[in-house]
Structures are given as structure tokens and as C-alpha cells.
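Figure S4 source data
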Amino acid sequence: MYEAFAQGLIDVQDEVRAAFGWTLVPDRESAEQMVDLVNAHGERTSLWAPNGREESLRVLSRRLSEGDEIVILGAAVTAAEVLNLPKTPHLIIAADGAVGALDEHARLACVVSDFDGGVHLDAAAQMGALIVAHAHADNFEQWSTSLEHWAGHPSPPALILSHQTPDALDGAYNFGGFTDGDRAVCFALAMGVEKEKIRLVGFSLGEVGRWSGSTIPDQKLRKLAWMDTILGSIGMNGAVKK
């Protein structure tokens, strides 16, 4: 259940690691440690316990699959684009810091994040947004700091954990993809959302979006090129600004 929409969306992660000179082991170790940390806090925070996370995933999957339209906000989303979101009933998945573009969270289904979203991600967590929390090799400090902080909230946010290794990992899923934006699309597809119901807003190749966290611009643009490749492989890069 909840496997990637297509095996290629997982296989491409090996291609990305090779392109950047990264290795698999640190990705796996980061994910395993995130699961261990969340499980430990789950002893007193039921939403973070394995059963609580599975229930959050089931509820979100049902909500998304039954939605009329799923709008996925990328890091380059503008205020005008948010104002012009469809008037018909829709749900929103925000890619990490893009959640900061929203004035209210009534239609926010979840935030897909590898913890680059800074104050915007923290604010969403404080308001109770469900976080699809992603671990990879070089975000250990970010996820550990954020999760320890959120665990101290009176009402910690619901979590779903994700990773980017080809191996099964108890307590976390590989939904496919690489960047927060294309991983959000992969997540929606894995939840059973029909491709035709997904609308991409604020996805761009030529700029580091204002809602991106701290990043190395040249490397970020290379990552965005991989995002375009991944979305293109499923026929969904038509809405990406070139």
C-alpha cells in the first residue's frame, strides 16, 4: 500500500545520487534515525506513534483521493497566484516553505517538507498542519532540530515520514521523486489522486523561488532540472515555468 506511482520515480533517486556524487548509506542512516526519534516521542505523543502515523496516512489518503482538485504549491508561487486559485472546491499540498504563501489553512491538506521551510514550516506545524517529513543525507540537523522543537508543542503536528532509499524501511515510505515539489506530486499520486486532478502552481526552473529555504543557488537550479525531468517522466511538467 502507498507505493510510488511508478518504480521509475524511485529508481531516478539513484540517478540523482550519481549525478551529485552522493552515496546511499547516509540517506538510509538519516531516515532510520528520524524514524527512531519520532517513535521515541510517540511514547507520549500518540500522533507520532507508528499506529498514529498510519492512521494519519489513511485519513489523508482518503481525503486526497476524494478531492475534486489538488493544488500543489511550489516554491516560486506568487501572491497573485494564490489569490487566483480555483474557486471550485480544492485541497492544497504545499511544498515546504511555500506554505508561507497561504493566509489561511482551511484547504491545506499537508506540507511535504525536507525541513528547508524555516519559519514558514514552523508556523504551519504550530498551527497543526500535517507534515510529510522527509529525511535525506544532508538534512539531519534540520529535521532533528525541528522535530525536537515540535515535540514540545502542546499539540504537536501529525507526521508522515518519508525517505529516498530503494529499501523498505519500517515506519517510513518512499513515495518517489527528489525535490519537495516533485515529491509532493509523487505523494499525491501514491495517495490515489488521479493525475488529471492535480494542478501545479508556482513551479519554476529558472529561479530559486522566494519560498525556498537556505540553499546554494547553482546547486538548487541543478536540482530543479531534475524536478523537471521527474515531472516530465509522468507527463506533468507542462505547468513548470521554463
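Figure S5 source data
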Amino acid sequence: MSELPEATVTRRKDLTDDSMRLWLAPDVPFSFKPGQYCTIGLENIERAYSIVSAPHEPELELFIELVPEGPLTTKLWNLHEGDKVSIRPRAKGIFVMDQKYTNHFMVATVTGVVPFVSIVRSYFHRGEEGHHFYILQGASYQDEFAYDEELGGLASSNPDTMTYIPTVSRPNEDRNDGWTGITGRVNLLVEEYLDEFSLSPDSTLVYACGHPGMIEDVKARLTPKGFKVTEERFWKQ
């Protein structure tokens, strides 16, 4: 893999024992569309990660979960500022915003929120108008919401354009002490919120990203109702 370009770790922020935000500076120009992914590697092991940052940002931001026996994430957990990883020179993926829909109903589990963050960051940066984003994010624990302050802030400042709904599935566990928000698995809430916001299939595109089981359930619930569901599956790696 020595012939591949490299990217330098510029920052790292550990969120929990098994999740972190990582910022990279590619050694070569790197362009992408909001919602796409990059492929990085160490010691001849490569994996794809959706990009948190928007294209206008100077660094690539990733949100990574540690998989205890994952061949790459166990190596990434030893990275420090100044270390390097390999990076494929082109971003890939078709999980991007479809402009022809007015409403974008985005359902995520934990790291599955990543492409949605990229999309809304870019949307607001470009000063676009005429669309509404509904982001529903599920997690077991409240400390797994890495972007809740950012997304909640955007929703508060732009209520006509953005709605953010985080939900925890294990509200009675000690790790969720103090949680006063929505509870329940995110896939079990999609129909309730589609009805609450009066969203119809002709003007609404549903995006599902994260755990494959969540995605399958969302599709099973919404496809018979006429909604188109586009998906991006995150496998443990």
C-alpha cells in the first residue's frame, strides 16, 4: 500500500471508551460529495468510513467506533497527532442528497448519523433553501450522540429547515441518568414522526443509515406505505 497517498492525523477526540472523532489532512487534494465515504488503511488493512466533514472544510473528519476484534479499528485506536494512514485518492458512494425531494427524513443509529452531518453542514454553508431535514438518531446511551449539540443547535436556529430527534433505547440504565429526551428504538418511532410532521411519500425521501437490522425494519415499515427508502449499511469492522 506504500504507493497510495497518505493522510496525517491532525486531531483526535475520544468520546467514550469505544468511540472517537478523528481529523485527517490528506497529502493530496481530496474531493467528495456530502454523504460519500473515504477508504483509509494501516498495515495493508483498509476499510471505508463515511465522512463527517463537508467539502468546504480543510480536514476530513471521521466518527469511528472501536470493534474489539476489528482488524483495522484496533490499529486506529493507537493513532496520535502526526501519525499517518493511507487513503484512497477518490471518495465513493451514492448516499447523497436527492434535491428533488422537499423533505429529507433521515434515520440513523450512532455512527450512521455521519453522512447526514456532512449533508446538513454543506447545505447550510451554501445557504440553500427550500428543503427540510428531519434527523432521527438512535443510540443505546446518551454519550453516543457525538453531534447532538451541533445538530440540536442547527435545529433551534433553523426550525423551518431542520429537526433533530435523538432517542435512547436503554433509558433505565445508569449510563443514561439524567436523560429527559425521547426513548425507544429509533426504527419504532419512524411512523409516529412521519405522521406528526404530516410527511407524504411524494415529497419525502427516507434515508436509513447504520445498523442493518434497523434499516431492514424501517424498510419493512415504510415501503408498504409508499415511501422510497435509500440506505447505507454500517458493518462492524
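The CA atoms of residues 87 and 154 lie 31 Å apart. The chain has five helices and twelve strands.
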